[in-house]
Amino acid sequence: MNKLLISSLIVLFALGACSRKVTRVSPDQQIDISGRWNDTDSKLVAEEMIRDVLSKPWYRRFQSENDGKTPVVIVGDVVNKSFEHISSDTFIKDVERELINSGQVRIVQNAMFREALRDEKKQQQTNVTPETRKKIGVELGADFMLFGTINSIVDEYKKEKVINYKVNLELSNLETTETVWIGDKEIKKYVKN
User: Fold this and answer.
1) What is the mean pLDDT of residues 54-74?
2) pLDDT tier at 137 (50, 70, 90 boundaries)?
3) How would you label 67-98 residue by residue, b for 16+ Cβ within 10 Å and e otherwise?
4) pTM for the whole thing?
5) Ramachandran region of residue 102, left (φ > 0), alpha (ψ -120 to 50) or beta?
6) How confident is the model at residue 14 (pLDDT cuts 50, 70, 90)?
7) For position 111, what pLDDT does the model report?
């Protein structure tokens, strides 16, 4: 009898320890749990930096030199040099989304997705009806490439910590290799445990 009671208590304790509550929240809601880089930081940095890059002189200069043409941009690598794992792919997609939604530039796929598109077009040359087949060799060439780094500095003592994230982005003219814009955005977080 005692063994049954003890076993039941162990099972109940184990179930209680494993209970977890999950609540659906809005993707726009800001939630900081650990103080590390999160989705809110990624979106905020992308929004501010794209607003900055599109307001600088290179944009008007390019349009005046090219009969009002909308510049074509490719977003290259954003290298994570911080102390923690940060998904640079997520940040790159936030940057691409802000650029596309601005309506001020046209975006072409990066090397990885471009290869997938080319493979698909090659397949279409033999497997798709001529009326719906897409042409090879008519891709849109990029005028500019955007790339950058994510860095961080941590200062901590006992239960307090300050994390400073710094994102640097640069825009270069693909034909001339001229750097036409450099921007950075810092996010500083104070964490007390």
Assistant:
1) 97
2) very high
3) eeeebebbbbebebebeeebebeebbebbbeb
4) 0.83
5) alpha
6) low
7) 87
pLDDT over 60 (residue 32):
yes
Instruction: Identify whether the C-beta of residue 110 lies closer than 8 Å to the C-beta of residue 142.
Output: no
DSSP states along the chain: -HHHHHHHHHHHHHHHHH--------TTS---SSSS--HHHHHHHHHHHHHHHTTSHHHHHHHHHTTTPPPEEEEEEEEE-SSS---HHHHHHHHHHHHHHHTSSEEE--HHHHHHHHHHHHHHHHHS-TTTPPPSS-PPPPSEEEEEEEEEEEEEETTEEEEEEEEEEEEEETTT--EEEEEEEEEEEEEE-
Residues 6 or more apart whose Cβ sits within 8 Å of residue 193: 159, 160, 161
Count the alpha carbons within 13 Å of 79 in the hemisphere toward its beta carbon.
Answer: 4
Distance CA 119, CA 52 (A): 36
Q: Are 175 and 143 in contact (CB under 8 A)?
A: yes
- The sign of the CA dihedral 148, 88, 51, 153 is negative
| % of the chain with per-residue pLDDT over 70 | 93
Neighbouring CB atoms inside 10 A of 179's CB total 11
- What is the model's pLDDT at position 91? 95
